[in-house]
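Entry for the shared binder. Reason: the reviewer on the internal report wants the predicted structure included alongside the sequence.
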Amino acid sequence: MNPYEPVADAAAAVPPAASAPKVAGMRVLVTGGAGFIGSHIVAALAARGHEPVVLDALLPAAHAVPPDSPPPGAAAFFHEDVRNGEAVGRALRGVTAVCHQAAMVGLGKDMADTPAYVGCNDLGTAELLAAMAREGVPDLVLAGSMVVYGEGRYDCVRHGRVIPGPRAADDLAAGRFEPPCPHCGADLRPGLVTEDAPADPRSVYAATKLAQEHLASAWARATGGRAVSLRYHNVYGPGMPRDTPYAGVASYFRSALARGRAPRVFEDGGQRRDYVHVRVVAAANVLALEAIAGRPGGSFRAYNTGSGTPHTVGDLAAALATASGGPAPVVTGEFRLGDVRHVTASSARLREELGWRPDVEFTAGVTEFARARLRGGEEVTAP
């Protein structure tokens, strides 16, 4: 197979934006472009007629088995770390926009991960932005994250919209997983969080993702550039890394089922999330890159990027088990401090301003994922 040939279904995942016509022939640097989400973005850009350039350090946390060729659709590949400003500058030559995906992701294992998160995510972003300023590259689409919100939106019958504090370890150990109203202790009703919600990062990873947005906004003001942050919700799909503490829960469940084991579901499985397919996220990146050129200079805009249809962690585990013909999930009651209970998105802004339409429904997407190859993993053959 030609490693520069785009995947066949990438074009279908990129509908035209309602507010911006197609911009042909952009040369786009995709940092982290050999990774899970980045490689799908590269393929979608190529299918849309753009010229993606990939810069990726191929770190072991994301590439337990390094790829033996550039991602499909890549016009050029730089095996470099985004923290190397000189290397980033070389990759930026001739580039008109940047899609910044390079990051250390996930909740991590413990506080010992802090320097690595800050180095990869914040120092790496700072080096990229400095190089963009030197090279005169005006447009940036950033891989943001819903983790900047902490807990999602909650309403109390008596007190209306409230922001619960972090859940206490004693409550979690006793099986009290739902955050109570901070004023009266009553049960809360979770809802969809919007981009106007206050930031409340509750992990080192979340703090670095918020810092990336602040850096991008400061860069835009200082240089007259244009920046967009796509706040991804729970992205899943083909090519996820397997068996790593930095992968999402979808990868953990899928890896367990590939070995014939039951997925282990933390808490009571009732945690609400917004699972969005990776091709849909790639489409959002292409739309944002095409739309951003028409924005005024010095601008920054954040967009939730989710399916808009919440499902619980238990729903995901059960759907994967069914699709793969594997054992039913086991609800363990275990928990991790720093995890939030519910966070689901309203992606109305992305729909209304860019004409984005998620076109991979949950059951269909999970069924495909149950049979897809993980990064460094084996196929699952469903009965």
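Summary line for the report: The chain has a mean pLDDT of 88.
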